[in-house]
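Chain and backbone:
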Amino acid sequence: MSKRDYYEILGVSRNATEAEIKKAYRRLAMRYHPDRNTGEGAEEAEIKFKEAKEAYEILCDDQKRAAYDQFGHAGVDSSYGAGPGAGGFGGGSSFSDIFGDVFGDIFGGGGRASHGSRARRGSDLRYNLDLTLEEAVAGTTVKIRVPTAVECAACGGTGARKGTQPKTCPTCAGQGQVRMQQGFFSVQQTCPNCHGRGTVIEDPCPSCRGQGRVQEHKTLSVKVPAGVDTGDRIRLAGEGEVGEHGGAPGDLYVQIQVKEHAIFTRDDNDLYCEVPISFVTAALGGELEVPTLDGKVLLKVPAGTQTGKLFRMRGKGVKSVRGGGIGDLLCRVIIETPVNLTEKQKQLLHEFEDSVQAGGKKHNPHSSSWLDGVKKFFEGMGF
């Protein structure tokens, strides 16, 4: 049985934000959680719960979501092979991890909810990189300058003034969470004093104002592999913003945008170009020099070539970054009509036209066939 679309499972659009995806998952998890469905329909609820969990895991991970958007389930099944009815959650994360991420402020004591919030991972960054077609096809190395948050050198990322250290939060005793009694229920919540970190800073670092990080620009070298195209992303692990109070850094995603080319357009691994030829070359045939990304090649134009004819030059296209064979170059010939003719040239063309018309269908088979069709059409309409 084929898997359902992840966006359909969560009931969100394909351009939904991470917050919208998380909200949709929270709603479904609360509805289909096994602890809330123990009677009739429990098996169906468990399947839907696992479906929602699997969809959330993929769509809340930038890399996996990009692979899913491009290749569907085939792009993520290698690492998430366990389907919603397979009896497991797939991947490497436990239920408590993902459940804790979404419900950490409501339910405590499980997964990352009770520990991971103390030093939060830094934000991922995105950098738009414009490349020429030649750079994208051949590959290149470029230097980029990125504004980001880095660890404060003055305090070493602790947020406390040099010579001091953060203190254990007196409200939560370093747990990062406090338990609140609401009627019959005991609810664990993020500590309002330390905001889940478990520590408080009594003497903040003057350089970072207690944040443990400062804003600055850093220069990075990005190796662009050969064959990339618009929409491809390069992930630089750990080059995003550093987390607050010693948290792990996020990642930097370099988004590729290939500029328009004066001669070629790209379609997957193939390149296309238009080659203008004269009426004489089209009629009599000849050889033309056409450009490729590797240099010039000769294109043989047979006699009687019509405008729009495509000529394929195999192996003169692009080798995809994802592997496979090299694409082709397809040259579309366009017959150029002469302009700004002299009287002498006009006279010669009239003479040529008279001689061609005298030959009838022999010289203009397509035109004669079209005229015959028009004649039959008018006769059938009674004109």
Summary: The first helix runs from residue 6 to 10. Confidence is low (pLDDT under 50) at residues 78-117.
